[in-house]
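Sample pair:
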Amino acid sequence: MAKRVLIALLVLAVAAGAAWWFAERSDAPVEGSSATAAPTVPPRPADAFPMTVESVHDGDTLRAHVDAPNGVVTDLASTRVRLLGVDTPEISPQLDCWGAEATARLAALAPPGSTIWVAPDVEVYDQYGRHLLYVWTADGRFVNAELVAQGDARTEVYRPNTLHEALFRSLEADARAGSAGQWGACG
């Protein structure tokens, strides 16, 4: 009988040791480890300001205006807005694969007449004089991120505008892996 108890205790000790061994080596992040969680989609920032969409040019560019000038958009005139951190297939001078779909997605997220909320990063203008901005819908959806997540855009970051680079790269990797949008349609 004592022999059986001793064997049972030995089996339990081996099982506990094995459980400890494998638990310590799991892929789950451990406090103090260098593993990091995927970036989360940020809410509209407190310093974002509203603009009214006038038209959508393509999947990453639109025209909009402010009702009150501010430190970023200084007049009430129509302004070209280039979405920061993303690039979509072109629609002109020739139509690239997924160009029409990306344009339609931006038009659905930010239709003419709607209010969008925008915020800059470090540089406010690109080489073409367009305002470089992150865009949120009136209901708080982060448009730049949604375009990447749905496979309508790829990540394109120009330093020093890198605020959401990690998020966009993570979303693009997921979209590519899932063959979303252009990643499944355009080969």
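The chain has a mean pLDDT of 86.
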